[in-house]
């Protein structure tokens, strides 16, 4: 066999092994052999680059998508489904169907995978394009990321001229738990549920990331087929199975009562699926009958999604623990006896705050109903009071911080209870984790575990100390080592050149979130300019209100903050904004735009005003500084004239910027 033939033979073998492993779940080739053969194929393809084809097993993980995803207009729209929430509603659906089809119908029942819908296009048996559902008509081209999903065949046994298949991409529950564990260790934000995680993974510009996320698919429909006709839906699913797709599990039912029974059983057995399900789908099986029923503007009349209520289970509250957050807020959490819910083991539930506990009267020892409905942390629905043991007491949050012992106070206008200890170690720890987190200073490798050991070893007390770490000392820490220590120090070094907006957010000043930090950095250009700003200047910035301004001023006044800023400055941390500083010529001025402007849209005019520190408002009042009136201005212009507010033409408006 010459090398060209060997290439072809290796591809077939690898394709087959892949299919057995990922689709049939019945591997016949060892991992070792697979890797070996893949390597050989890569070598040969490097030698004969002209022989590389897009469906080769070596091509699953390609290069980055340069600038976002292209739009894809779906040949056949990816429709939504009508929801039913009870057996009665299901029977009503059946009645509507049978009015159009009095001779009786057969139904197909499938689990409703809680992932995201995609369309896979094949031409002459080759996978050419895959797109997200988008709004059903237009989606995004995510071909490169879909190719990394090993259960999606790149080549089909039968080469129809054109075939479009619809399926649901999901993150298996196991991969999801692992991914979130890893993210937690790295101090990154967690995905709320497998669906969000799958969506985030499919929209990565770098297919390597998508490839690492362990995504999978179940296909459930033929959208379009040229060169084949089918009579029933079940037949299409069988065909897809022969074409080596991973097909949705499905059952045919002769009556709606049978279908309802299947749905009930599916709901009870939902744990066993590797994916989350949020319902079951009932579909008319005969394709000609589907044509008769047709679709409404939104969904087909021949299918319905039966939605399961969020799963609830009883468990016992064994303890209530209180954590102290970065801003000193005491957050209570119920520790419950482990219980399986929606595919994960639940061991604690959020209690929000004292008001929530009081309202539901949750006590240690109580049996409670726990529910998981898409959030990361499950919640308590109700206390099963008839199962309350004797001797329980109403629960009250401690009046002293459980970490530093300082007294706590309740926020004047809210439900939060806060530690007053300025030096509270718990706050410090959280503060450091926040400082290093991805949206703040983005210091890779500085997650909660590492922060804890740095603080524990006395090397770090506040963020300033990070910039004076001794690499050798760090390497001696438990679970560290030379290499990780070097990486950590390099990441810290790198963070010195971050934009000011990241640093501002990293400070964790109350009220100053990511957005405010960006606006402030862009407006003032440097930390020194921001520190010098008074309340009036601050509140003149769009989106910055009085409370935020006060919070900034008092933060900058505190000696600890001053000390921190000086430490950072000495260490060479960048205190400037990378963006060109915006002007302030219109600071404190409020504009109302009305009528049709000629040279720019209202949004553009608004952006120009904001870039100079002005504000745009939708209605004219005494506080309005100027009204800019375009063609056919109406009531707002009249109001301005009544109130005697200066009215500018477009030219006069532009002149303001020339002065600026
Ligand atoms: P909805 O978005 O709630 O109207 O539900 C429709 C969505 O359910 C579609 O976008 C499908 O992607 C998804 N889905 C999941 N599993 C299935 C299935 N077995 N049959 C049809 N649609 C499904």
Question: Would you summarize the structure shown here?
Answer:
This protein is an alpha+beta fold and 660 residues long. It has 25 helices and 22 strands. It has 5 domains: 3-60, Helix Hairpins, CATH 1.10.287.610; 83-307, 2-Layer Sandwich (D-amino Acid Aminotransferase, Chain A, domain 1); 311-387, Nucleic acid-binding proteins (OB fold (Dihydrolipoamide Acetyltransferase, E2P), Beta Barrel); 420-579, DNA polymerase, domain 1 (Orthogonal Bundle); 590-659, Rossmann fold (3-Layer(aba) Sandwich), CATH 3.40.50.
List its traits.
660 residues, alpha+beta, Helix Hairpins, D-amino Acid Aminotransferase, Chain A, domain 1, 5 domains, five-stranded mixed sheet, five-stranded antiparallel sheet, binds adenosine monophosphate
Explain what you see:
The chain is 38% helix and 20% strand. With 660 residues, it is α+β, with helices and mostly antiparallel strands. The protein has five domains: 3-60, Helix hairpin bin (Helix Hairpins), CATH 1.10.287; 83-307, 2-Layer Sandwich (D-amino Acid Aminotransferase, Chain A, domain 1); 311-387, Beta Barrel (OB fold (Dihydrolipoamide Acetyltransferase, E2P)), CATH 2.40.50.140; 420-579, DNA polymerase, domain 1 (Orthogonal Bundle), CATH 1.10.150.20; 590-659, BRCT domain (Rossmann fold, 3-Layer(aba) Sandwich). The chain starts with a helix and ends with a helix. The mean pLDDT is 90.
What is the CATH class designation of the largest domain?
Alpha Beta
Number of domains: 5
Which ions and ligands are bound to the chains?
adenosine monophosphate
Assembly classification: single chain
**Could you give the count of β-strands?**
22
Low-confidence stretches: none
Q: Structural class of the secondary structure composition?
A: alpha+beta
